[in-house]
Amino acid sequence: MTINPDGTVTRRNLGRKDNQYSSLDLRLSKEFNVSGILIEPSIEGFNLFNSKNTKKPAVTNLVFNFDGTVQEGSGDPRQFQVGVRVSF
């Protein structure tokens, strides 16, 4: 907190971007032993609460952006995937 000459108060970190990010990922899996073969079905969920994670446009020079792109818009929506791993 900074007190200005005119008596007003300036909040801390005023020049920083709002870098809020919220994402909850979950993986559920269970191994089954069938005749010496391990079978593991799984389900994964990404961004379970479907949080809107806004991607801000880059404010720095693109020299420092290694993939050469400028990101803006919304982040990844809620996604699910299923899989099976077989070990023998």
Description:
Helices cover 0% and strands 39% of the residues. By secondary structure, the chain is mostly beta strands. The strands form three sheets. Strands 3, 4, 5 and 8 form a four-stranded antiparallel sheet that branches. Strands 1-2 form a two-stranded antiparallel sheet. The model has no long low-confidence stretch (mean pLDDT 80).
Secondary structure topology:
Layout: E1 2-3, E2 9-10, E3 26-29, E4 32-34, E5 37-46, E6 54-55, E7 73-74, E8 79-87
Antiparallel strand pairs: 1-2, 3-5, 4-5, 5-8, 6-7
Provide a compact summary of the structure.
The protein has no helices and eight strands. The chain is an all-beta fold and 88 residues long.
Q: Mean pLDDT, rounded to whole units?
A: 80
Structural class: mainly beta
Q: What is the molecular shape?
A: elongated
Q: How does the major sheet shape up?
A: 4 strands, antiparallel
Number of strands: 8
| Helix count from the secondary structure assignment | 0
State the separation between the terminal residues, measured CA to CA.
62 Å
Low-confidence spans? none
What is the H-and-E element order? Answer: EEEEEEEE
Helix content: under 10%
Query: Strand percentage, roughly?
Result: 35-45%
CA radius of gyration: 23 Å
